[in-house]
Amino acid sequence: MSVQELRNEIIRENIPLLIKELTGFADDDENLRSYEQMAWSVIRNHRNLSTNSHEVRRRIEGLQEKFAVDNNLEYAEHLGRLCDEIIQHPLCKEHYEVDIEWSLLDFLISLAHNPTGALRRNKEKIDKLLKEHDELMREKTAENDSEYWKKVLQEDFIPLERSYSSSSELSYWSDATIEELMGLYEDSEIGSLSLPSRSHTPTPPPGMENIKPPRRIFPYTRYNNTLVEERLLNTVQNSWWEKGARIVQPTIESTNREANFALEYHKLHAAPTNQRKRDPPETATEYSLLREIFWMFQVPQTCKFFQVTGESIKIRKNVTLTSIRSIALCSMLENHFLPYIRMMQELRNFSKLIYGSDDYTPPNTLEHYAASLELLLEPIWHELLACERALLTQPDCEINTLISLHNKLRPTFAKLSHLHNIHQQAVLNIRQLPAHISSTHLLAALIHCNRTATTAIEANLAMSLFLASVRVFLAIADTWWTEGRLDDWHNEFVIERVNESGQSIRVREFYKNKEKAFFVPTQVSKMITENSFFQLLLEHSLEAGCTLNLL
């Protein structure tokens, strides 16, 4: 068999083993055959006579430089020593293949996947394995040295024949005994000169049997249908009302009698027979109550402590914590949490109110106001979500109670209260009033809120809403004053065009007019007409109309 045929036979035997190690395919896998064909195609189409040693050396130096940059200089030096050992190994020097050492190094570097990242992730494991490997190699070297010198000392050692007297028992040597000793000596000599047989499959060094070849890391997780329901229940945390909100759930009792105040109080008042029968209170954990409070801010739904009917949110009367009476808990929730939940619901429903009907087109001023209101609600949302995230994770074993939650959310509730107060003063019943009344009253009320604000936060919120809403009026006024074109497509500006003789524009109606069946509340008209911004805008708009008539 020629050298080329021997080489092809070795490749043919080792290609399936290499593919199995890299891919993990079984022998009966249909993809194994296609991978073998692809590997043979790559080998047959390889046109290089030998590996470029300069390129391989540059790749090794590049890896060493990356290790040095990552503050792993000792690993870079160790990599260089290992490469030098492979290059200078006698088996590589005496091999019939040209540059077999460079081909081997090129193959190993090509198999490595992100060596620097693997070193950072598994540095402790690699150090431990290398330390164990070095200790085993030192022990093996010491044993080999002792065995070597033992064989050297026994080499060509022939026992000397000593002359004994005929009366001595040790002088009796038979011919058969001498032949047996010579045969044993020859066997030991042949055994000492024979090389140890190598197994066909190489064995990894001690301590490195569990190291696997690099594999592709997928950025996703496989879908497991069996864990969907369990994961959903753990995420939603609705187990305390899944059987129905009005059904009495099993009570939560503590080992301390003082912590079961609600149940003990019920038993105390249920003992006398002359009183009416009381239903036992439903109890839940304080963690469940805190989670439901956050849900009420996001998507109000009927649950353990809250009852949602249409737009109304109420506290369920016969539900409490184990350490407090239901009356006290209801009072606490109604005074310190429920008003802010209703404020958030009203502010969030404003966008649905102006866009909820097809037969109503909101003015652009109200649209800008609604968009600005959503932007101002975002920081409040982020603060609520941050508190909920802290409740879920409980960093540093933090204890979360109803009182601590209220103290933590007090600045957030104050900002929400200011925003709701401004909204109530600025927004009217927009579906019953004309567009120009709703828009001008909105701007006038925002200016009034800014002037009468008692805190800097409230003044800043009012001015922010005003600057976002007034952009529509400023755009209409700019076009009217400069180009003489009144682009008031939603009939919300302070003036309007008419086709009467002698005039082309007039001021819109802002007062109640019984003849025209135009009804506006007196306080609304007063808020609009007494506003300085409205008066300034009206004055300049009329002057611009007179100038255009003259031209």
Structure, explained:
There is one protein chain. The protein contains 22 helices and six strands. The chain is mainly alpha-helical and 551 residues long. It has three domains: 3-157, no CATH class; 235-336, no CATH class; 349-551, no CATH class. The strands form three sheets. It has a two-stranded parallel sheet. It is elongated. Residues 160-176, 189-199 and 243-250 have low confidence and may be disordered.
Short description:
The chain is mainly α and 551 residues long.
**How would you describe the shape?**
elongated
Query: Distance N terminus to C terminus?
Result: 110 Å
User: What does the average pLDDT come to?
Assistant: 78
How large a portion of the residues is in β-strands, by DSSP E? under 5%
Keywords for this structure?
elongated, GCP_N, 551 residues, mainly alpha, two-stranded parallel ribbon, GCP5_N_ext, microtubule
Helix/strand layout:
Layout: H1 3-23, H2 30-44, H3 53-69, H4 73-87, H5 90-93, H6 100-111, H7 115-121, H8 123-154, H9 175-193, H10 228-236, H11 261-270, E1 282-283, H12 286-298, E2 306-309, E3 312-315, E4 319-320, H13 326-336, H14 338-355, H15 364-393, H16 402-408, H17 410-426, H18 435-452, H19 456-469, H20 471-483, E5 495-497, E6 505-507, H21 522-529, H22 532-550
Parallel strand pairs: 1-4
Antiparallel strand pairs: 2-3, 5-6
Protein name: Gamma-tubulin complex component
GO molecular function: gamma-tubulin binding; microtubule minus-end binding
Domain Gamma tubulin complex component protein N-terminal: 292-504
